[in-house]
Amino acid sequence: MSNDSLDPRVNRLKLGDAGEVVKVEEGENWNIYEVFHQEKRGAHHEHVGCVHAPDPQLALVFAKEQFARRKRCVNLWVVKSADILAFDVEDEDMFANNLEKTYRDASGFKVMEKINKFKQSK
Amino acid sequence: MMNNAALTDLIIKMADDELIQGHRNSEWTGLGPVMEEDIAFSSMAQDKIGHAWALYRMLHEDLGGADPDSFAFLRPEKDFKSSHLVEMPNGEYDFSLMRHFLFDQAETIRYESLQDSSFEPLRLLSNKVKGELKYHTLHANAWIMQLSRAGEESYSRMQQALNDTIALAAGLFEPSPVYEDALIAEKVYPGETALYHRWLDRIYPVLVKASLNLPEAGAIVPVYGGRQGIHTPYLQPLLKEMSEVFNLDTEARW
Fold this sequence. Notes:
The complex is a heterodimer.
Chain A: E1 31-38, E2 45-53, H1 56-67, E3 75-80, H2 112-121
Antiparallel strand pairs in A: 1-2, 1-3
Chain B: H1 4-26, H2 35-63, H3 68-74, H4 84-87, H5 93-114, H6 120-148, H7 152-170, H8 180-185, H9 192-209, H10 235-242, H11 244-248
Helix pairs in contact in B: 1-2, 2-3, 2-6, 5-6, 5-7, 5-9
Protein name (chain A): Ring-1,2-phenylacetyl-CoA epoxidase subunit PaaB
InterPro entries (chain A): PaaB, PaaB_sf
Pfam families (chain B): PaaA_PaaC (PF05138)
């Protein structure tokens, strides 16, 4: 399914290739794939939503009509949602700004006062 | 000077196939097996109607034909040149998918051959639809492959669908008894027989990968008639439904 790519981190679909068949057993759900949309060459791929599909190839096939039908698009990525690692929702507090640490923000340095003082001293 | 009658005949066949196939595929809208597929299939049905429109416009603008809407919606059944393949009712999804696969591969072969056409409007159109058809055949191939290898029931249904459609699909390449030689001589396109063999060469490897058995080429008896205005009983009701709104007021401005 992949071929020699300009960006070796990304697998690219060969249109003629069948790909591996993914067997979905009775009672099992299809996988969910996250879809990333690239508006022009060199631009970031932006997350636009997800599709249900049995395998990555069909995920890409579905994503094309689902997310690239109207908006300008030059490429898409699909990533199996299960391959994404995220923090636990409970751990959101890790991101909370500690008010005691404003000295860490560059904006926290109060230098104007000193600069003005210096200028006046001239 | 081009043979306009021959060109007109060829373009009507292509356009009517696109229109009827597009209409049939659009009948799946809202009924597709999963939402994602419903959207993809409906979108491709719209593409087909778009191709039909482009071809009807070509008849109108380049060959002095009637305006596209009245040509598409007001002609009697016997004046249609659609193939029997596209007229068939949708049946179940296996049938519709197999027809989609065989039809779109044939369409791709046809437009590829038009890249070298001596008739410029067809050459331009073939470039325009190239990307769309690439997607249509990718979609068709992916499904044929998946469903043919997804277990016994699925496999036997796909094989049955192939058995049911192959002779009908071969009928897409019904040569014109009157115009064929002129179109080939004037290098409009390479002719139906050449396209038929290219098509067999194109579908064969996909079917092999899917482990589906294609009958011996000699054993396929193409279903002809559509190009001569002889149709299945399914076309008339389709035309009636398709043109129902248009016929309420044929002069209405939209």
